[in-house]
Amino acid sequence: MREIVVISGKGGTGKTSLTAAFAHLAKNKILCDLDVDAPDLHILLAPRHLRSEAFVSGHEARIDPARCTRCGICASVCRFGAITSRGGVFTVDPVRCEGCKVCVAWCPEKAVAFPAKTCGEWHVSATRFGTLIHARLSPGEENSGRLVALLRREARSQATSQNKEMILCDGSPGIGCPVISSLTGASLAVAVTEPTPSGVHDFVRVAELCAHFRLPMAVIVNKHDLNPDQTKSIEDYCRDKGHTLAGHIPFHPDVTTAMLDRKAVTETPSPLGRTIRAIWKNVERAAGLAAAPSPNELQGA
Ligand code: SF4
Ligand code: SF4
């Protein structure tokens, strides 16, 4: 089973639009949205939830007013300012509580409970392109890396039970915890970048991350025609570091039009469809899912 993760150094490079197009083109796969902080693949795929479960991670303090004698010790020991008193009633602000358990240990009345915390929800859903595993963290919640690991486990389990040969993931932008959790043990990273100074800067950071994990990387330069010099610097970098250049996509308003229609651009009559199909073929090859191009294909390229 091959696991392909589409990533980008920063947001707004067209990563999710491309993932949706790949989801349309890929055969025999499970889809997985690992961008748990700001998931948006579901907007294009219109999933129907088949199974939903709470994501429980860590603990939070809760004061039992019936046992509390209002001594104020808990508020004085909380380093995060999460416990306040209003009219002499002590309560915990769940957004500020870091779950350190200090107040639980110090409360002389054993009035602070410490239940497990529900930090979000995850789903197994049906879409027109196949099964999608996805989630959403509750606002302000952390532990996105653990949620990503949970989604990947579920995606593997679904791929095994449905006899699928590939998991196609929409990763998070950047190089933070959820991205690291997405890439560990994957088969191929597909980095989507754009030829702007910030795009190149963030692309290099994500490329270094993949190199650190010794993960093969295929690169797509989106809107390549907007800045040929920056595009060349990305190409030179890929050549120098041995990354596969999977292809270029020109700037085209059809991408936005497809998005507004909640479609993958390859589902529309856009001329970009042909370009993206060729790029997907290169991605499949880089992932070991398709044979090398025949001499005829090379001649036609
Ligand atoms: S330490 Fe315990 S008893 Fe004292 S105010 Fe806090 S919860 Fe109430
Ligand atoms: S668990 Fe820690 S952070 Fe949360 S209220 Fe208690 S002392 Fe403060």
Give the neighbour order of strands across the main sheet. Answer: 3-8-9-2-10-1-11-12-13
Mean pLDDT metric? 92
Global structural class: alpha/beta
Estimated helix fraction? 25-40%
The name of the CATH architecture of the largest domain is 3-Layer(aba) Sandwich
Structure write-up:
42% of the residues are buried. The protein folds into two domains: 225 residues, P-loop containing nucleotide triphosphate hydrolases (Rossmann fold, 3-Layer(aba) Sandwich), CATH 3.40.50.300; 54 residues, Alpha-Beta Plaits, CATH 3.30.70.20. The chain has a nine-stranded mixed β-sheet with strand order 3-8-9-2-10-1-11-12-13, with helices on both faces. A two-stranded antiparallel ribbon has the order 4-7. A two-stranded antiparallel sheet has the order 5-6. α7 links the parallel β11 and β12. By secondary structure, the protein is α/β, with parallel strands linked by helices. The protein is built from eleven helices and 13 strands. The site of one iron/sulfur cluster has 13 residues, from α3.
Label this structure with key terms.
301 residues, alpha/beta, Rossmann fold, Alpha-Beta Plaits, 2 domains, 9-stranded mixed sheet, 11 helices, elongated, binds iron/sulfur cluster
